[in-house]
Amino acid sequence: MTSVFKVEGVSFRYPTARREALSGISLEIPSGEMFAILGPNGSGKSTLLQVMLGELSSTVGNIEFLGRSIQRWSRRAIAGKVAFVPQGEPLAFPLTVRKLVEMGRFPHVGILGRTGPDDEAAVEKAMKRAGVHSLAGRLISTLSGGERQRARIARALAQEPSTLVLDEPTAALDLHYEMETFELMRELATESGFTVVVATHNLNLAARYSSRLVLLDAGRIQAEGEPASVLTHETVERVYRWPVVVAPHPGPGPDSGSPQVLPLSRPR
Question: For the whole model, what pTM was predicted?
């Protein structure tokens, strides 16, 4: 198994925090698969992504990307390999969808920022793949939440990366856009050879669409592996501190049998 990210004994503490945000994290993310990072609020999901990408420096431990320490990668070099889609971001000035997606070409253009035919082709391909080509002339501010997130994914794809990292990509989206986003992520992994790493609160969609999961709580790994071995009744109740039933997805489809978590009413 070829590892894209290798995390070894990583701990991280924010300067003013009383406890570590991450403690003794070790995991490997294989190439060409969809890998989901799960956990309650404050469990360390976003922090783990930032440490993996080198945006935060771990207090202890080591992180490798493609066999080399993340600290030895320049920001431009890693941007040519990894595209990051944040939860949300403010825009300081009006941008059309096309202009936003064109920003994804930054790692590939010269020092003067001049684009050429290859850049234009990459932008067109990314917009079509993310389903926003018909919105190319629209201002980002006029889009729905789902359309805006699709535009961010198109910008990431325009980088022509081999790895896509997404932080809560379906937060606040309705069912349609949530499903479309997970369908696209799985398609990128299974049909296009991308490595997709996603941090999400959605246990059920993560189980249906991801090959492997890691479940965090208070900065520590509670379970890691295939969905059925991670989302067990005992583990989910312990981590989320709420009664649940875990049952197989009824299908039909490739996700038939995936564990699905149903929260119960707390007994009075």
Answer: 0.92
